[in-house]
Amino acid sequence: MRYVNELPAERLHGKRVLVRAGFDVALTDGEVSEVFRIEKGLPTLKLLKDAGARVVILSHIGRKPEDTNAPVARALKKFLPVIYVPDISGTQARAAVEAMKEGDVLLLENLRRDEREVANDGLFAGELAQLGDLYVNDAFSNSHREHASMVRLPKLLPSYAGLLLRDEVEHLAKALKPPRPSLAIIGGAKFETKDPVIQLFLQSYDDVCVVGAIANDVLKARGFPVGRSRVSEHAPDEKVANHPRLLAPDDVVVERLDGQVLTKKPRAVLEDDLIADIGPESVAELAPLIEKAKFILWNGPTGIFEHGFNAQTQTIAEFISKSGAEKIIGGGDTIAAIEKAGVPLKNLGFVSTGGGAMLEYLLKRTLPAIKALG
Question: Rounded to two decimals, what is the model's pTM?
Answer without folding.
Answer: 0.92
